[in-house]
Amino acid sequence: MERPVILELKNVSVYVNRHTTEEIQILKNINLKVYKNDFITLLGSNGAGKSTLFNVIAGNQPIDEGQILVNGHDISNMSEEKRTKFISRVFQDPKLGTAPRMTVAENLLLATKRGSRRNLKLRRLKQHLAEFKQITATMPNRLSERLKTPTGNLSGGQRQALSFLMATIKKPAILLLDEHTAALDPKTSAELMEATQTRVTEDELTALMITHQLSDAVTYGNRLLVMKDGRITQDLDAVTKANTNIDELMIY
Amino acid sequence: MNLITSSIGQGLLWGLLGVGLFLTFRILDFPDMTVEGTFPLGAAVSVTAITNGLNPLIATLLAFLAGMLAGLITGLLYTKGRIPILLAGILVMTACYSINLRIMGTSNVSLLGKQTLFSGQFFASLPKFFDSVVLGLIIITIVVAILAIFLQTNLGQAFIATGDNEKMAKSLGINTDQMKNMGLMVSNGMIAVSGALIAQSDGYADVNMGIGIIVIGLASIIIGEVVFGELTMNQRLVAVVCGSIIYRFVLLLVLKAGFNTNDLNLISSLVLALCLMLPTLRKKFHFDRILKHGVAMPTKERD
After folding, report:
1. Nearest Cβ partner for B167 among A96, A102, A122
2. I need a labelling partner for B123 at 20 to 30 A (CA). Which of A116, A205, A229, B104 fits?
3. How wide is the angle at C-alpha A133 spanned by C-alphas A131 and A134, nearest 5°?
4. From the CA of A238, how many Å to the nearest CA of chain B?
5. Which Pfam families match (chain A) (predicted)?
6. Is B119 inside any structural domain?
7. Which residues of A239-252 are buried (b: 16+ CB within 10 A; e: fewer)?
8. What percent of chain A has pLDDT over 90?
9. Residue B264 falls within a domain, yes or no?
């Protein structure tokens, strides 16, 4: 049975310095359909347009041409804040994903309200603690013991694990992972990748993940995209991906 | 004794300035120069309203609204006009000078013989200088309590997150521009009320009474942090008020030491500069054992 299309990009183009002599097109007529439960890994060298593609989807980069559809609705002109109702994101830099002076539990509580109106009701942190304890326990590196620690005192790995939990605690329609393990040591990085895989599968999330680790790109996910010079040059499904040699991908 | 009572009273009235500034300087994490304009604005509005026969309570509320309006203008220049916050604040502060002169009609207006918040039988029955202690205590308690509750709401948490990590706040759907505008409005409203209270306590409003105000506000915040060290958010609000009172005692000592009131701005800046350099000085000269706590952000575990 065909899975429904969650996200669709139609002829999306982004320019820098448009209408000047220094005009550069950083996304060139991107056409992409992301289906429900897709876990797409995205490869490409620096400057290929991967991050721009994420920014365009998340809404902090306006598009110059084309359309972005989520569940069939045109969201091309929707603000970044409004899009957080259904899109969540984990950044590469552990500092970007968490509020350093707020505790782990406070950060998680903020994330449970992603995309909804912030009202004058009391936050009721204590009532959430048991639930937070439980979900942080699913993460490596003993995050669950540090619920009351300000996140500024956590290690990079703990912060990224927390950022990932914050992005998924309220189930998003689309999860964007922007090299979320790149800043971590190999062991921590592998643990977070495993946790990511588990969570995406169990919660049946639809996710896109940028990575520079060819092995991760091949191991994880059910679909692989390769970008080059602002274009998607390869789009491999699970079967093709499984039969692809890492060396063949090196051409990107 | 009178001088000590008076210092405590003044510290409480000025504490409102410190707490207001805390919202922008510590929570939103930027320096808001608007306060140098909104403090005298609050004084000008309330004194003019009182001399025109309005009830002092309503006059003080008008000051709050005027301060909020000035804060909103700074906020809009900053968030929508994309003017850097320091400059946006300076623009509104400068504009306020003209506005204040327009409101008062002259550079100094006296409240001699008028009803103020400090008038009334109850305050007259108190010993000397206790009026500002009682009124200051009532107002600061109400304000700190409301703020403490507010910061524990979902909106308050979004407000804190905005200052702590704006990019994260945005990615969680928090409208950070709205949070900044709200913070600037409430902060400047409170600072205008502080101006209104000081004017009523002193018995006049002067167009120049805003000069150096930001340093006084910052001094309350920093002294509170240096003296009390690592605290929770609610405790930090109270620490600011205590810092404000301690600062008044410092001024009292300075005056006792033979300096005159013209030297106060110089002294204030020196005190503040010293407090701000404390973390660096401590590292350099190993002050740690002498001064247990510092300006650093809270690092302990907390609820």
Report:
1. A96
2. B104
3. 65
4. 30
5. ABC_tran
6. yes
7. eebeebeeeebeee
8. 79
9. no
Which of A95, A103, A110 has the most B C-beta neighbours within 10 Å, making it the best mutation to test the interface with B? A110
* From the candidate CATH numbers 3.40.50.740, 3.30.930.10, 3.30.300.30, 3.40.50.300, the one assigned to the domain spanning A5-249: 3.40.50.300
Q: How many CB atoms lie within 10 A of CB B108?
A: 12
pLDDT in tens, A167-176: 999 999 999 9
- Cα-based torsion angle of the residue sequence B284, B288, B294, B295 in order, rounded to the nearest 10 degrees: 10
The predicted structure's pLDDT at residue B284? 78
CB contact under 8 A, A84 and B173: yes
Quote the tokens at residue B261.
């009131």
Separation of alpha carbons B168 and A64, rounded Å: 25
First-residue to last-residue Cα distance in chain B? 40
B296 to chain A, any CB pair closer than 8 A? The answer is no
Chain B residue closest to A111 (CA)? B172
Residues of chain B with pLDDT under 50: 293-300, 303
CB contact under 8 A, A110 and B157: yes
Please state the rounded mean pLDDT for residues A147-154: 94
Alpha carbon distance A1, B25 (integer Å):
57
Mean model confidence pLDDT for chain A: 91
Residue B28 contacts residue B225 (beta carbons within 8 Å): no
Distance CA B158, CA B179 (A): 8
The residue whose two tokens read 């701005």 is B265
- Calculate how close chain B gets to A34, using CA atoms only, in Å: 21
Question: Would you state the pLDDT for residue B65?
Answer: 98
Residue A210 forms beta bridges with which residues?
Answer: A42, A178
Asked if A102 and A151 touch (Cβ cutoff 8 Å), the reply is: yes
Q: What is the mean pLDDT of residues A90-115?
A: 94
Neighbouring CB atoms inside 10 A of B222's CB total 24
Q: Are A89 and B171 an interchain contact pair (Cβ–Cβ within 8 Å)? A: yes
Indicate which of B165, B174, B182, B232 best probes the interface with A, i.e. most A CBs within 10 Å of its own CB. B165
Q: What is the mean pLDDT of residues A60-89?
A: 94
Asked, for residue B186, whether it belongs to a domain, the answer is: yes
What residues contact B149, with CB distance under 8 A and at least 6 apart? A122
Do residues A198 and A207 lie in contact, with contact meaning Cβ atoms separated by under 8 Å? no
Give the SS3 label for residue A225: strand
Residues of A in contact with B234 (CB under 8 A): none
Q: What distance in Å separates residue A239's CA from the closest CA in chain B?
A: 34
The ipTM assigned to this model is: 0.90
Element (H, E) at B206: strand B204-206
A110: which chain B residues are within 8 Å (Cβ-Cβ)? 157-158, 161, 169, 172, 174
Domain extent, residue B185, equals 2-209
